[in-house]
Amino acid sequence: MQIAGSSAVVVGGAGWPGRGDVRRLHAAGAKVVVADLADDKGKALENELGVRYVPTDATSEESVNARSPRRRSLAPLRISVDTHGGPPAAGA
Q1: In a 10 Å sphere around its CB, with 0-12 CB exposed, 13-18 middle and 19+ buried, how is residue 37 labelled?
Q2: pTM score, whole prediction
Q3: Which of 51, 53, 57, 91 could connect to 42 by a Cys-Cys bridge, CB 3.0–4.6 Å?
Q4: Cβ neighbours of 38 (radius 10 Å)
């Protein structure tokens, strides 16, 4: 697969193991969008690597659809990675 020059979205990319996927894709030359709700970690990746952080609740269709235009600006989107864990467990 040609990764360099492709766009990638990593849902849950601000947490573990998504950060590793973001780093590998970025190092391989992809334009990466981190879609997550962990603002501090997402913004830190954005500042460190120059990737794009887009606050997104992957459990909400409305949230995902509202963020799509920003992700499309990096088209063509060829890579999608889903590493989000969903809502936290009770007591977590």
Answers
A1: middle
A2: 0.83
A3: 53
A4: 18
